[in-house]
Amino acid sequence: MTGTSAQLEPGQVLCPYCLEIVVHDERALHVRNEKLQYERLDTEGLANPLRRADVLRGAFQLCGNTEGVSHHYIPVPYLTHGRPLTVAMVGTSGTGKSHLLTQMIAEVTDGGLEPYGVRWQSVNPADHSDFMRERVALLRAGEQLEATAQTPFAQFVEALLLTGTDGEVRPVAFFDLGGEDLVRTDSLLRFLLGVDALIFVADPLLACGLPQLDEAREQYGLHVSRSDPAFETVLDRLPRQGPYLDVAMALVVGKADLLRFEPPVDRWLSRPSTAPLDARRLREESRDVYAFLRRHAAPAWLRPFDSALRCTLHFASATGGQPANGRFPHGVRSRRVLGPLLSILAMCGLLSEDPALRPSTVGM
Q: Across-strand partners of 245?
């Protein structure tokens, strides 16, 4: 929990777009028409409780903040359930974080969290349907997703209502932060002040000097780098209250299919995620990822781990292979993409009442 979100009064929510405090107000509700334009919603005529609940689930509230931002609307269920959890993906453009996030959400909607006692529901049914059609179905059909668009604000991707093992329902909003925008856009950096969790995605083509990656680096015009500028920018901007950052973090070595024959990556990629979540196994994978990066990458790639009070490390592959001419010629097969999200949910108190998985004990 960030310092900002910890100071909220009951009923107050941080707007996921501008970080201003919002309180649910039925006088500011809107619905979208067939032309996707927002129209005022009069709730006085919604006497039938079933119809009322259905209409409000698809409604939006206009945020009252217009200082430096255009009009923006927040889904009503985001305001009427528990304290929202905001998760942001961080990495330079091209690291595969958009593919990783898409596959992560797709596995949730496929029931991937149910063995861990967590149920899901969409925050807004229409937006969720668009996400599944425009991103999940496209990727699963073998199409490469477009890179994160440049924007002065955080790019909202999707939001889900997750019911944790304690029965509490909390909205979870996912954002994809473009590395280039982070470096040059101060308004986007202010978004970080309200973030609850960060998933840093390290591209082995940029991080690891292994010679077997040279051919792929040449193909994509990449070079080994001593750090990711997006990592550095985010970690420098987050507020500190002591020697470590008190924000839940996960560091993922993405595109791990490129390293599938390299120990210990081979061992973890061939090991499926199984419920219940095992804190010992989380520590083992974190240990192996840390050792791998210490051996094959510059020290700055481990800065998320070195900076955080709670951080787990993971190997993952969103697609199981690399694209060619905008397509994945051998299809798409994700591996271990839920791992980072599971650890984030455990650190934020949504996953388990097991003492070994308390928020304060998950993460190294």
A: 308
